[in-house]
TrEMBL record:
The gene is LOC104709169. Residues 412-459, 518-527, 583-598 have a biased composition (Basic and acidic residues). It is found in: Cell membrane. Its main location: membrane. SUPFAM superfamilies: Protein kinase-like (PK-like). This is Receptor-like kinase LIP1. Residues 17-37, 380-628 are annotated as: Disordered. Residues 71-349 form the Protein kinase domain.
Length: 628
């Protein structure tokens, strides 16, 4: 039923005839002339004021009725769980807006509504649809948002217009990156964190340049009929396919539930398949259920990709994206990565690598170990178990009390344990699944290693819009930060503990290392055996001596050769899991070689000790850090 259609006096003959573009894919630019301008005399604003200290306006109902041509059908953009959404033009400024008319079931009181609106208005980020204002006249509950002209991600993935080109890989990764940034803002930059609860492809809107903006965030308390099972069930149906397993188990939702939903969206971007598609055969209708067995079989990753992309993507990038996705879709919430870590990883994947420059994700970029563990597991980095300190955000924690630090560390350890448990569980499943095809499994390991190396971004020089350039600046900053990060790495968790900012400084805390990974990629034929890892151990001691150690990992199994350094990852012993988890650590121990002093063996015991990589280590001593 169409509501609020009783304002004929606000609609001129001209406006009746004027088309109200309700095609949300019409690429209308916000700066274009608005297509509808009712006569000034009939649309005089009764009231518009800035709500105290907040960039949100109150609109009266007439104003919004005018903007949407009395909520005419032709202005209807669509109807969702909250109510109908109309495209409109604010008469006072000519700005295009989306007016969301909240369903009146379970109507919230005016004060309650206002309070919700004010807290919504505080959420501002380039990747979130901006709330411009609201109307709470009488029993009206309307929200006015910026209009996003390009339609939703769902439209572009599944409801393409004739002649519309399918989205390419980089565009998809950029959309994922932008959406992750929006979510990261809600989870990490807002206090208290906002759980989105409703992340899905139809809630990711795209502007004319495919810049993503999340909508319907923070609206939980405005849901119609909250507490009314009839209305709740219709929304759950809509979100079905995106909801985390804990939701179906009746547990509380957390930020990690959003990470799960994000994983589903990422999977949709990669595969071009809907989260739920009832037109597909039974075993393919639920996207995650369909994808789970494929996650364990990297050989099948390329078949997973959206056929519309016609394999126009780097296989390595695909493998990394799938690795991130499968991590987000872990059954156990605590085993899923932080969205901030997903964001960092996607910042690298959303960079074009057409020039074939080897790319790097510094492990130090990740705040939580689960992401580096996941990427390591998918062969993106073999040197997982370095104990990494948290990123620069934690610098702020120096002001926190010691008990908070301890609590934080406990949580970290718990998360790490959970990740390892989850990995082991999955590894066991894989072992069972592949026990009848050992040779395949071996070749997979090789393939994973070959294709899943981490990528180094390069700057894009194309001209961009303001918002996009902001985003690129942000990408650049992220990368610059990541690349310049010095890892205070330690060889055991005890040592790591000693290196926490809150700890008393020790000589170890002054040992800083930069870590970069040069990938062996198919694209670089000759380098396929020469994955080179450069570790610059910068000893900031009184003599300012920098020790730079170069380690080349040669991807073959000849362990008998030339060893001077051994890296043991002690995280794998089924007999004594708890103890091993405590020992989750990497050791560098120098062992002697019969042939050469400058080569090493990297022993990855996590993979059953079967993969030994030759490491060539050359120690260079620099007199000053200037030489680095
Ligand atoms: N700010 C906006 N700019 C442009 N179009 C919008 C905007 N907000 C919503 N829309 C469009 O309006 C329609 C309804 O959106 P709405 O968010 O209410 O529902 P939904 O996302 O389809 O479902 P749900 O409410 O269950 O999430 C969708 O087609 C959506 O793309």
């Amino acid at each position: 039923m169409i509501r609020m259609n009783c304002f004929p006096c606000f609609t001129s003959q001209k406006s009746r005839n004027a088309p109200c573009t309700n095609n949300n894919n019409n690429q209308t630019n916000e700066h274009d002339e608005p297509e509808f301008r009712p006569p000034v005399a009939t649309t005089k604003r009764v009231e518009e004021r800035e709500t105290e200290q907040l960039p949100v306006k109150t609109f009266n109902f007439r104003e919004l009725a005018t903007a949407t041509k009395n909520f005419r059908q032709e202005c209807l953009l669509g109807e969702g769980g909250f109510g109908r959404v109309y495209k409109g033009t604010l008469q006072s400024t000519g700005q295009l807006v989306a007016v969301k008319q909240l369903d009146k079931h379970g109507l919230h009181g005016n004060k309650e509504f206002q309070a919700e609106v004010l807290s919504l208005a505080k959420l501002e980020h380039p990747n979130l649809v901006k709330l411009i204002g609201y109307c709470g006249d009488g029993d009206q509950r309307l929200l006015v948002f910026e209009y996003v002209s390009g339609g939703s991600l769902q439209d572009h993935l599944y409801e393409q217009k004739p002649g519309e080109k399918p989205m390419d890989w980089i565009t998809r990764m950029k959309i994922a990156f932008g959406a992750a940034q929006g979510l990261d803002y809600l989870h990490d930059k807002v206090n208290p964190p906002v759980i989105y609860r409703d992340l899905k492809a139809s809630n990711i809107l795209l502007d004319a340049e495919f810049y993503p903006k999340l909508c319907d965030f923070g609206m939980h308390n405005l849901e119609p009929g909250t507490g009314d099972s009839l209305f709740l069930s219709s929304r759950v149906m809509d979100t079905y396919g995106y909801s985390a397993p804990e939701y179906t188990r009746g547990e509380d939702l957390t930020v990690k539930s959003d990470v799960y939903s994000f994983g589903v969206v990422l999977l949709e971007l990669i595969t071009g398949r809907r989260a739920i598609d009832t037109t597909k055969p039974n075993d393919e209708q639920n996207l995650v259920a369909w994808a789970q067995p494929i996650f364990r079989d990297p050989k099948r990753y390329p078949d997973m990709a959206d056929p519309l992309m016609k394999k126009n993507f780097s296989e390595r990038g695909l493998n990394q994206a799938v690795a991130i996705t499968s991590m987000c879709l872990q059954e156990e919430p605590t085993a899923r990565p932080l969205i901030s870590d997903v964001t960092v990883a996607l910042s690298f994947l959303s960079m074009s690598t057409e020039d074939g420059i080897p790319t790097t994700i510094p492990m130090s970029s990740f705040r939580d170990k689960s992401m580096s563990i996941a990427l390591s597991r998918h062969g993106s980095c073999s040197v997982t178990p370095f104990s990494l300190p948290r990123k620069e955000e934690d610098d702020n924690s120096s002001s926190s009390s010691e008990s908070e630090d301890e609590e934080e560390e406990e949580k970290e350890k718990e998360k790490e344990k959970e990740s390892i448990r989850s990995m082991k569980k999955q590894e066991k499943e894989e072992t069972t699944a592949h026990s009848d095809d050992e040779s395949d499994s071996n070749s997979e390991k090789g393939q994973e290693k070959e294709h899943s190396q981490l990528e180094k971004p390069r700057d894009s020089s194309s001209s961009v819009s303001d918002s996009e350039s902001d985003q690129r600046r942000s990408i650049h900053e992220t990368n610059a930060t990541a690349q310049s990060l010095k890892i205070n790495y330690s060889y055991s968790s005890e040592e790591e503990d000693n290196e926490r900012p809150s700890s008393k400084s020790s000589s170890k805390s002054n040992e800083e290392s930069t870590f970069s990974w040069h990938d062996s990629d198919k694209d670089h034929a000759d380098s396929s055996r020469n994955t080179s890892m450069r570790i610059n151990s910068l000893a900031h001691d009184d003599t300012s001596r920098n020790t730079s150690m170069r380690i080349n990992i040669l991807a073959h199994n000849d362990s008998s050769r030339n060893t001077s350094m051994r890296m043991n990852s002690l995280a794998h012993d089924d007999d004594d899991e708890e103890e091993e988890e405590e020992k989750h650590e990497t050791r560098l121990e120098h062992i002697h070689s019969s042939k050469s002093e400058d080569q090493s063996v990297y022993s990855d015991e996590e993979s059953g000790g079967s993969s030994l990589h030759q490491i060539e280590a050359e120690e260079e001593e620099h007199i000053s850090s200037d030489n680095d």
